[in-house]
Design brief:
GO terms for molecular function: iron ion binding; peptidase activity; tRNA N(6)-L-threonylcarbamoyladenine synthase activity. By secondary structure, the chain is of the alpha/beta class. 43% of the residues lie in helices and 18% in strands. The two termini are 28 Å apart. The structure holds 5'-O-[(R)-(carboxyoxy)(hydroxy)phosphoryl]adenosine and zinc ion.
Length: 348
C-alpha cells in the first residue's frame, strides 16, 4: 500500500505555502508571498499579511493540486502550521485546514512551523537519523534542539537570550541603510569584505557563561558593538567600510552558531547536525558549518536554498512524519499558538 497523501499548509508569516507529500516524496510545493508589500514599512504589517493569506490561499491550493496531478479527494490528512507565528496569519491557514479536513472527513495535524524547518530535510536527504542535533536559525529563532523522532521527541537545549540570528542581520542591515529585510543584503555585502578587518565580540563566550549558557546565544551585544563602531566612524566624518563591517559581523554570528552546534553534537554523542530556518541560507553559516562539522566527524544536513524560506513542504513533511509515528491527530478545536513551544511538534 502506498504512503498516505499529506496536504501541508504554511501561513505563519508572509508566505502562503501549500505542498503535497507522499511519505518522504515531495509532489508539489507552491508558495505565494506578500513580502514586497513591506519594503516601504521596513517590517511586516500583520493585518496586511493576514489579508494576503486570505487572497492567496485558494489559488495556491489549486496550483499545488495541479502540479501534483492530484485531486483534493485523494488527500489522506491535512497538516497546517499551528505556531509559532503571527496570530492573524496562523488563523487564516488553520481555518482553511480545518474546513478542508472537515469537508473531506480527514484528520488535521496542527504542526510546529519551526520543527518543520528540520523535517523538510527528509524530502531531500532521506530519513533523518535516529538521533541528531537540530540548529534552528530564522528571523524569530536561534535554537539548539536534541531530537529523536522528529514528531515525538524534541528537547530544547538552548536558544538566544535576545535577538535571533536573522533579526540581528536585519537590524545591522537597517543600521547600514540597506533595504528590508536586511539579512540577504548583509550576507551579499559580507562576501566582498574582510572578515578579520574588525574583531566584534562573541556573545556568551566568556568562561563563566560557557557552562551556564552552554547552548544559548546572545547577539544584542554584538549588534550594539556594530552600531557603536559605525557611529564612531560617522562622527569622525570617516567612511564606513560596509563590506568589512558585514563580513566581521557575519563571522561573529556564525562563529557562535557553529561552535555551539558542534559542541552540542559532541556533548550528546550525536553524529549528525541538521540546520534549518530562513537564516540557513546565509553563505558564511553554510561554509563554516561544513568546515567545522567535517573537522569534528559530524554529518551536516543543510536544506537547499529553496527550502530555507518558509514553505508548505516543511509542514507537509512534519505532518507526514507525525502520521508515520502514529501521533494522534489534533482535535478540531485546536487553536493557533503564536508562541508554540519547541518541544511540541503536534498540537494536542
Ligand atoms: O525562517 P524565516 O523565513 O522566517 C522566520 O520564521 O523568521 O527567516 C527569515 C530571516 C530574516 O531575518 C532574513 O533576513 C534572514 O532570515 N535571512 C538571512 C539570509 N536569508 C534570509 N540572513 C542572513 N543571510 C541570508 N542569506
Ligand atoms: Zn520559518
Amino acid at each position: 500500500m502506498s504512503d498516505p497523501l499529506i496536504l501541508g499548509i504554511e501561513s505563519t508569516c508572509d508566505e502562503t505555502g501549500v505542498a503535497l507529500v507522499r511519505g518522504r516524496e515531495l509532489l508539489a510545493d507552491v508558495t505565494a508571498t506578500s513580502m514586497d508589500e513591506y519594503a516601504r514599512f521596513g517590517g511586516i504589517i500583520p493585518e496586511i499579511a493576514s489579508r494576503a493569506h486570505l487572497e492567496s490561499f485558494i489559488p495556491t491550493l489549486d496550483a499545488a493540486l495541479e502540479a501534483a496531478g492530484a485531486d483534493l479527494g485523494e488527500v489522506d490528512a491535512v497538516a497546517v502550521c499551528a505556531g509559532p507565528g503571527l496570530i492573524g496569519s496562523l488563523t487564516v491557514g488553520i481555518s482553511a485546514a480545518k474546513a478542508l479536513a472537515a469537508s473531506l472527513g480527514r484528520p488535521v495535524y496542527g504542526v510546529n512551523h519551526v520543527i518543520g524547518h528540520l523535517a523538510v530535510d527528509e524530502l531531500v536527504d532521506g530519513p533523518l537519523p535516529e538521533r541528531f542535533i537540530g540548529l534552528i536559525v530564522s528571523g524569530g529563532h536561534s535554537n539548539l534542539l536534541r531530537i529523536g523522532d522528529i514528531a515525538t521527541d524534541v528537547v530544547e537545549l538552548g536558544g538566544t537570550l535576545d535577538d535571533a540570528a536573522g533579526e540581528a542581520f536585519d537590524k545591522v542591515g537597517r543600521l547600514l541603510g540597506l533595504p528590508y529585510p536586511g539579512g540577504p543584503h548583509v550576507d551579499r555585502l559580507s562576501q566582498q569584505g574582510d572578515r578579520k578587518a574588525i574583531r566584534f565580540p562573541r556573545g556568551l563566550a566568556a568562561a563563566k557563561d560557557r557552562e551556564r549558557h552552554r547552548y544559548d546565544f546572545s547577539f544584542s551585544g554584538l549588534k550594539t558593538a556594530v552600531a557603536r563602531y559605525v557611529e564612531s566612524l560617522e562622527d569622525a566624518g570617516k567612511q564606513v567600510p560596509g563590506a568589512d563591517v558585514c563580513a566581521a559581523f557575519s563571522e561573529a554570528v556564525n562563529d557562535s552558531l557553529t561552535a555551539k552546534a558542534v559542541q552540542a553534537c559532541l556533548d550528546t554523542g550525536c553524529d549528525t547536525l541538521v540546520v534549518g530556518g530562513g537564516y540557513s541560507a546565509n553563505s558564511r553559516l553554510r561554509e563554516l558549518a561544513a568546515e567545522r562539522c567535517e573537522a569534528a566527524g559530524i554529518t551536516l544536513r543543510l536544506p537547499p536554498l529553496r527550502f530555507c524560506t518558509d514553505n508548505g513542504a516543511q509542514i507537509a513533511a512534519l505532518g507526514s512524519a507525525a502520521v508515520r509515528a502514529g501521533v494522534e491527530p489534533s482535535p478540531m478545536g485546536f487553536a493557533p499558538d503564536s508562541g508554540m513551544p519547541l518541544d511540541i511538534a503536534v498540537a494536542s
